[in-house]
Amino acid sequence: MSxxxxxxxxxxxxxxxxxxxxxxxRTVFRTAWAPPYSTNLDTLLVASSDGSVASYSIAASKxxxxxGFVNAxxxxxxAEPNCFVQAxxxxxYDVKFYGDGEDALMLSCGDDGRIRGWRWKExxxxxxxxxxxxxxxxxxxxxxxxQHKGPWGALSPIPENNAIDVNTQGGSVFAxxxxxxxxxxxxxxxxxKMVFKGHTDYLHCIVARNSSNQIVTGSEDGTARIWDxxxxxxxxxxxxxxxxxxxxxASWVGCVALDASESWxxxxxGRYISLWNLPASECVSKIPTRACVQDMLYDNNQILTVGTxxxxxxxxxxxxxxxxxxxxxxxxxxxxxxxxxxxxxxxYGCLVDVISQFGSHMCTFHCQCV
Amino acid sequence: MEDGEIEEGPMGGVDEDEQSSEPRKLEESPFEILRTxxxxxxxxxxxxxxxxxxxxxxxxxxxxxxxxxxxFVTLRQANRNILLEEDRVKxxxxxxxxxxxxxxxxxHNLMYEKSHYVKAIxxxxxxxxxxxxxxxxxxxxxxxxxxQDIKDSVLSSDAAHNLMLRRLNxxxxxxxxxxxxxxxxxQQKKILLETISNRKxxxxxxxxxxxxxKKASLxxxxxxGLHHTKRLKQHHSAELLPPALYxxxxxxxxxxxxxxxxxxxxxxxxxxxxxxxARQQAHKDTGFTMMFYxxxxxxxxxxxxxxxxxxxxxxxxxxxxxxxxxxxVKDSLDQGGIFQAHPLKIIIHLYEDETSGPNSAKxxxxxxxxxxxxxxxxxxxxxxxxxxxxxxxxxxxxxxxGLELPHQSAKLIVQDAKTFDTQRTSRPYKWAQHLAGIxxxxxxxxxxxxxxxxxxxxxxxxxxxxxxxxxxRVLTVLxxxxxxxxxxxxxxxxxxxxxxxxxxxxxxxxxPWALHTPLCNLDSWxxxxxxxxxxxxxxxxxxxxxxxxxxxxxxxxxERSGATKAELExxxxxxxxxxxxxxxxxxDHSTQLNLISKSIIPPLNxxxxxxxxxxxxxxxxxxxxxxxxxxxxxxxxxxxxILSRKSxxxxxxGLREFRLVLCRKITADxxxxxxxxxxxxxxxxxxxxxxxxxxxxxxxxxxxxxxxGLEWYNELRAMEAEVNLHIxxxxxxxxxxxxxxxxxxxxxxxxxxxxxxxxxxxERTNCTSVVDxxxxxxxxxxxxxxxxxxRDRRKMISWKDMNFNSSRP
Lengths: 370, 809
Fold this sequence. Notes:
The structure holds 2 protein chains of 2 kinds. Chain A contains 2 helices and 29 strands. By secondary structure, chain A is mainly beta. In chain A, the strands form 7 sheets. In chain A, strands 4-29-28-27-26 form a 5-stranded mixed beta sheet, with no helix packed on it. Chain B is built from 24 helices and 13 strands. Chain A: WD repeats lie at residues 196-237. Chain A: One of its GO terms (biological process) is negative regulation of abscisic acid-activated signaling pathway.
């Protein structure tokens, strides 16, 4: 504490002020629950824009309110992570688990174009302290997106990975990359198995449709594509905005979601969600939303969406709103569903809101600045 | 009957004969004669009557009548004799009366004399001396000391009486002598008084003499470059300063002399009052010195300790013992004058430190005063009548609004008044206490520092002072004040130019936004007086600039702060989700904890509801917002609320809020895009940079109406992050005071870029194959011209060579 005239450290104080602001501007890009069949099911993983992946135990004892670092007046619930790893330079965008239970790999991708994987067991058992900078567990997987060769040997910036998904049977990780390609990585070798080229702008999201060995990608160019993993060819281009007179840039596909049967695809496009029946490859319905949808997922036959407004929407397959729950982040980038029905919403302000299946808020916390 | 007859007798002329006959019969006694003649007259009358009745012959009548006349005569004679005798007796009595009267008179005189003597004796007996406690000189002393003539004088035959009289005489003599002596002494005194008054007269005239002498010597002094008189005077008055102010004075003076700190010190106030005060203090304290001493030591130690939250056990006990007594004593003192200030005050003129010239500009003048009862030092800006909210000294250091009394003991004294008197222009800032060294100074007046227990205390003070110097308190405070003042001046300048709707001038050209010529207009700039109200997003932002600008600033702020509180309450009362706060905010702590302590893992058998609405309608947190769907401004408002609710009490103190509207015309569809920024400028500027909260609304002429700004949500947040946080890290140190100008310029630049990108007119080239024209050979590979990146679609802005990632949250 650089408190008063007796012990004044102006730079430190300026730093605390800015740090406080930094927390307010930080974003949680992904919340993910611990993999099924592992011991600590109440653990929530949070990937945030400072590149950290941290786990928080939602059990009441762990979420203590630590001493606010500016002063005690700020009654902020700053949660301290149990385990913590500095995964990426720049924002960490996605966290997925490869495998089940204790043997699962925790994969993360981020703005630096890397995909890194840690053993979940190691990660969850490490009591990583904040001052260790989160570098004390070694990743078992660490791959970087390739750079493009430009003219005269210029190399493009490393494209970022905006989303990943996994296929455990094939041993592959799919990454939605910033160079408008999707990559299929081999988990064992760490090599690129397949490159999916075709989008004209960077990819926002990727979902693996493992039942038919396909992946679905959504891109900034306003289309979603379905790819065949074997051939690497695009089997279908879904253009949700085709018949909508949406103007300009407001039509990117920010997120896609597959239902459990993998026959229904929800695909956000600007302020619409379009529902596609994949076997029939036709658009079933278009659901207008108030805000841009930034993440969604299927909960049985319902769709949960979050976006640029502080609301958690629940739609049925016909596009009727079933419920709207106020949630803490004013703009949410992630929703994740615990098998028990508890939802975690993460978003702007480094806020995570944990909501029970009945819609009540179980806890809301700021992730601690590292 | 008989008298009447007797009376009648002399009346009638007939009695003349009887008178003449009477003296004859008076020979025995006139009275006898009178009686016998009367009886004989009666007898004769009886005879006559009997004659008449019995009709006796009347010859006897003649005899009888004569007889009767004879008797009458005798009667008359007797009567006459009686009268004569009476006269004689009367004269005789008359003669005898004179000596009787004389003697009785004499008797009365004597009686009177006697009573007089008795009274005099009584008076003598009752006589009380003026000095009843002084007894008569005892006999032996009398015999020893009395002069011979008194001893030998014989005044009375009675020996005892004589002795007494002699003693009395001696006493009288003695007293007379003493009186004489007294008179002599009086005279002497008078003479002395006269000489004193003469000297006094001389002394009173002396200052003017000296003054004239001083005046006369001034040129010489100037010539020689000496300024002794003033300094000596100041030193003299410094001795009378209370210890706290003395520390300030001495340390500042030392700083000034040692490091040529451009400050001027001055002690103002009446010296006489100070002297009187010191004397009074000394007098008051002598009774309690010991107690005061220890209790004060412990309490000051305590108060500093309490801040550290680690009170020593022993100290604690001592405090408990001592404090109640002390409080009592304090209470018995003048209760009304809790805020009584020491008569002496220190004025400090602070000058610019960077200018090289000898006459650097005066930045600010501070007045330090010492509250005697509270043992706190208060600071005010000399000559400023601003309200406490505008006091630029507040929050000089974090959490130091000057509203609260700095230590516990003072709070105890004030008790009822929770906060310091807000009407005062000088306030008890913590840094002032630190500057005064209140944390190690005992609260004792300097006049009783000479006590033998002063040694211990002095050690304390000395160690405290050495710590004080190590911590560089003086320098820290002076630098902070200087920085604050300069920052405020710079801020004022920027605010002025913004009020005139001019882009503030940026002297630093090494940042991207300094070279960018804004395409958007500075549409309005106004201080905000009320908390943000939800506005119709479609309505044009019409602001009466004149009115807003001319409003007095403090009124605005007062109202606003009050209203913010009200708003806060109303928000929590709404039953709205209490944790809906992306920002650091003051929340009901218990609510949060309750939320957390709920068991997070629900029963594993999944109870799934088809609809949330059906199941848990009563839940406070489940909100049915469907009705809100047609109010697109909702989110905007919420965001503003969130920002406005970021109220951490002390940080909000002295906060000013402004509303800035940037307007950009989009030529393509004739619409206006307004970017509205709510700017909160805290008193800690620039250490705590102004906080921007952005919202956007499009006002289009056509049907294409997009007012929600929801689409822009992430972009706005990115701009906020950039303006509030990231550019501050980029700014060179010397530009700190112009943060606001930089922020506004940067905001304008970002706004321009965002609009350029967003407008459909600008062609986007996503992929470019590059062909080297000269070699006529296509070069492999593609450049990806990207304008967005990442899941939050951050905008890439290239500025010259620098890839300027507009937001890296």
